[in-house]
Amino acid sequence: MIKIENLGKRVMTSEGELVILKGVSLEVEEAETVAIIGASGSGKSTLLGLMAGLDTASSGEVILDGHRLSTLDEEQRAVLRGQLVGFVFQSFQLLPSLTALENVMLPIELKNDSQAREKATALLERVGLGARSHHYPNQLSGGEQQRVAIARAFASEARILFADEPTGNLDSATGARVIELLFSLNKEYATTLVLVTHDERLARQCHRTVRLVAGEIVSDERHGDSEPALAEAHDEH
Amino acid sequence: MSTDVQEVAAQAEAASPRTVTVKPLTLSTLLRLSLRLLWRDWQGGELRLLFLALVMAVTSVTGIALFTDRLEQALLAESANMLAADRVLSGRGEAPAEWLDEARSLGLQTAETLAFGSMVFSDNGNMLVSAKAVSDAYPLRGQLLVAERAFGAGVPIDGGPPAGEVWVESRVLPALDADIGDILYVGNAELRVTRVIVQEPDRQQGGMMENAGPRLMLNTADVPATEVIQVGSRVSYRYLFAGDASALETYAEWLSTRTNGEFRLRDVRDESSEVADALNRAESFLLLGSLFAVLLAGVAIALTARRYSERHFDYVAILKTLGCTSGQIMTLYMSIQAVLVLIAIVLGSFLGWGIHVLILRALAAVIAVDLPPAGFSPYVVGSMTAVICLLSFALPPLLSLRRTSPLRVLRKDLDDNTLGARLPYGVGIAGSLVLMLWYSRDVVITSVLVLAVAGVVLLLSGLSWLLLRSGNSVGMKAGSAWKLAMSATRRRRKQNVLQILVFSLTIMCLLILTLLRTDLIRDWQAQLPENTPNHFLMNVTEGQIPGIEAFFRSHGVEPNQFFPMMSVGVTRINGEEPRPQWMDDDEQSNVTERSAGGGEAGEQEVGEDGRPRRVSNRQVTWTNRLPNDNEVVAGQWWDENPQVGYVSLEDDYAERLGAKLGDIIEFDVGQGRLIEAEVQSLRSVRWDNMQPNFFIIFSPGTLDGLGGTYLSTALMAQEKKVMINDLLREFPTIVVIEIDALIEQIQNIIAQVTSAIELIAALVLVCGALVLLACVTATLDERFRENAILRTLGAGRKLILSSLLIEFASIGLMAGIIATLGAEGCLYYLQTEVFQQDFTLHYWAWLAGPLIGMLLIGLLGLLATRRVVNTSPLTVLRHIG
Fold it and tell me: Which of residues 122-161 of A touch B (CB under 8 A)?
């Protein structure tokens, strides 16, 4: 589903060139859940941004569902994101001037789907926020906002879900409930999930954990207890 | 590359290539999304200021354009009343019939008048009257007011007297001991007096000598029967034209090649320099006011659009992660702007119409004429202003939105955009220039504004250099409000320099308009104060002066200074002939010269030496007292016991003549007699004060024994005018020129113009306040965040409020100083070049400008940011993110 070849990212700073990622190669199968783990500044969010086509690499290649991102311009990458990718962010990234329902409706509407309201309402019910669909983001708690963000991510019927520190802004109990919801929906929709986190326990809930140190992959570990899910997914594939 | 990866890549290459196609959003989806965002942004307050700025732009420009359009028509109509026509052709003889035929063929209305002095007799008495014969179509503009009895209230009437009748001014009837219905004898014609003239639109037109004496009006059909017009009679022929402006222009062009200098076609501006001056200045002021309104509205739009865009960077980044393309995002935002501008145009046009109606209602008392309905063009001007403002000020920041990186969702620290930094200013400046030029069609005023703005920017560059030089501040220095404010000012120096620029420009516009308004009104009030004498007494002999003074005192009228007067011509300066060009220059002809028929172009005479010698006769006087509204600009005015043989010249006249202090000028004082006088002083003279003014004043004694008569003025109220009959009965040789109607008309026009500029100034003030508010709001987010953090860390309300007040007040102070400097520079140019005023520094503004800046910005800033301390820090931090 996602193939990364020798990916590199360098930026120029006032103190010279800064290498954020160097020679990263990775392959993620369809319906696989992968955690990218590392300390702050290890390049994990940059890697996520490159995989999702939010940024362009300095070298190497990202192939997303057969699309070589380097051959696409920003416009084409945006379309690809709309068709293929969903996001869950640490800071939720809901549009503050839209209600919870409207936030979830947005990606459906962008696909010219006339059933936007019905689908969004069903998703909000599914994440347990049916009663709060007309609230604005600043009227919701952090956990509720993240649940809206998860509903929005699945609303686009994305096949790949990128989650950047989804529990980073939440307390552990709320975080646990959000993760439970995320994994449950992910399983339900058979989505490929790439999750950036520094939380080892959260990472262990994924099929694989890829560890980044200073922009390089230092380990790629498959978790035994997750194998059935992965195998199941592979079989289905 | 590892083998595994190469295989993966090869597999990917081998796989059927996938294509990405952009599916355009359907119109209904786009509209739904746009309207939803628009509505939500409106509810959230994001769009309110931008919308308000757009509405203000349309309202102020449409309102001013409508008002100016109709006021100008009203002023022209009011002014045309002074001529009783749009254009008047005047001459000493009859105009060829084909000239009038041509006018009629162009669709112009025509009428004719003949003016001449004549004796009129009744069965009981006689008097000298200013007779005026009018054709049936008279007057073409304005109305005659007539009464059924002497000194009765006037009612409007169409047309003049029919054949066989005469109408007279009230005081004629008691002077002739006659009444309505009696027969009057004008020459050999017997005409019945049927009405009393209360007001005549063009009463003061023509040579003032023709207007000496009260009016008697008859029909042109009766003129032959009077037999008073003989060869050599002094008759003034006036042909009146009215109609479409373009037809009038065509006619003027056609006529210009035919008149040969014997006839002159004039409009009210040529006819009355006082009115022309008031009209020109008012037009320039209204134009300037409108330009300021446009400029300020543009700045407000730029600021609010920029803030709107800044607040939408995250928004766009999220939309992009959800798959929105740049094109779709632009379509979305452009739709929002289009809807916004459309609503603003509709609302602004309506409000603009309302404002102009309110203004006109307020002016109903002074605008005496019915206003023609406004055209459609003011609405187009207002709408175009909004569109151009939006395109030049709001589009660039919006365009920069499309370049927002979707990566912002992961990294907030990403630079907002690179385009947004400079391009908006460039496009905005270009847009303003186009808008101002298109709107004003006046390169001079636009250039002044551009130069002023450039000057302020230059000053600001210096200021920012100073600020940058002051070095970086370490920490927030939160120990005291003062230090906190100063460190905040330095930390935000880039934004502050921009804020000071906007504040300076706004305060500068407001200062210019306020100071100009004050100076204009003061000038007009000084020109024709309440007690301006409204009658001229001429042809007075020296022996009559004590009697006339006594007469006035006994009738409760204060006598004024008597000026001796005679006609002289300059023949040589320091033994040389004067410059030839000065002779043709009679544009300074004033009420004195007009009264006496002076200021005429040079004639040629032959001197004693047989050479042709140019002379130009001027009415001159001699006095040891410097007349009112005269100021010595060079040399010295003679003292109480002046020596004989000196002369004082008006400074412009001296320049045209080529004479300077100490020159010896030879004058022809009549009958070939020559005298010499030395130029002892040069004077500036206020020509538009409707008082006796002289180019040349001699020291007393210089012209002794050369004859001459005296000139004086008197202020006589309408109800006392009948005393003129007694005055003329007692002193039959003097001539009384009545200019009360003219003064009243000019005062009326000036009152209208004054009210108009007051209202325009007020409207621009509102625009200015909006800009100030927009500018203060523009930096709110950062202040909110910073102060919320400070409060979280334990800073008290008082500290934060005081620091905000100090920060805004110091920004306001700097803006006030720069604005005052810019305003004075601008005013110097505007007053000397555009408004033809004398420039003096406005000392009080040097105190008021900085003070107003400090107080206004300080209070506005505090009001706008008071929520910082009234909202919980958590709410602020959560809201701003």
Answer: 138, 152, 156
Burial class (CB in 10 A: 0-12, 13-18, 19+), B475: exposed
Q: To 5 degrees, how large is the angle CA B850–CA B856–CA B858?
A: 95
Nearest to B18 among A66, A75, A107 (CB): A66
Amino acid at A73: D
d(CA B649, CA B685): 10
Q: B226-285: per-residue pLDDT in tens?
A: 888 876 677 888 999 988 888 888 998 898 888 776 788 877 666 666 666 776 777 777
Contacts of A105-110 with C-beta under 8 Å, sequence gap 24+, read A105/A155, A106/A152, A106/B33, A106/B319, A106/B322, A107/A82, A107/A152, A107/A155, A107/A156, A107/B322, A107/B323, A108/A155, A108/A156, A109/B29, A109/B32, A109/B33, A110/A82, A110/A156, A110/B25, A110/B29, A110/B322, A110/B323, A110/B324, A110/B328
Residues of B numbered 89-148 whose beta carbons fall under 8 angstroms of chain A's beta carbons: which are they? Answer: none
**pLDDT of amino acid B14:** 45
Answer yes or no: do B44 and A81 touch at CB < 8 A.
Answer: no
- Quote the minimal CA–CA distance from A40 to chain B in Å: 13
Beta pairing, strands A85-88 & A160-164: parallel
Nearest to B322 among A74, A97, A107 (CB): A107
Interstrand relation of B535-540 and B709-714 (parallel, antiparallel or unpaired): antiparallel
Candidates A177, A185, A104; CA nearest to A137 is A104
Q: Please give the Cα distance from A8 to A56 (Å, whole number).
A: 10
Given CB atoms, is A8 within the 8 Å cutoff of chain B?
no
Contact B323 A82 (CB under 8 A): yes
- Chain A residues with CB under 8 Å of B407 CB are 49, 54-55
B397: left (phi over 0), alpha (psi -120 to 50) or beta: alpha
Please tell me which residue of chain A has the smallest CA distance to B31: A109
Contact of B144 with B133, CB cutoff 8 Å = no
Residue B2 at interface with chain A, using a CB cutoff of 8 Å: yes
What backbone phi and psi angles, to 5 degrees, belong to A30?
-65, 140
Residue-wise pLDDT tens digits, B36-76: 888 877 776 667 778 887 888 888 788 878 877 776 676 66
Helices B443-469 and B797-829: angle between axes, nearest 10 degrees: 140
Class of domain A30-43+75-236: alpha beta
CB B238 within 8 A of CB B89: yes
Peptide bond into B529 cis (omega under 30): no
Q: What share of chain A is helix, strand, coil (3-state, %, to 5)?
A: 40, 30, 30
Q: Which tens digits make up the pLDDT trace of B382-397?
A: 888 888 877 877 777 7
Phi, psi angles (nearest 5°) of residue B84: 65, 20
Contact B610, B642 (CB under 8 A): no
Choose, out of A9, A14, A26, A54, the residue to mutate when testing the contact with B (most B CBs < 10 Å).
Answer: A54
Q: At what angle do helices B545-554 and B723-730 cross, to 10 degrees?
A: 150
Domain definitions of chain B by residue range: 26-82+274-441, 113-239, 444-530+739-881, 561-714
- CA-to-CA distance for A188 and A175, rounded, in angstroms? 20
- Beta bridge partners, B265, equal B89
Joined together, the tokens standing for residue A26 give 């990775």
Highest mean pLDDT among B174-183, B282-291, B830-839: B174-183
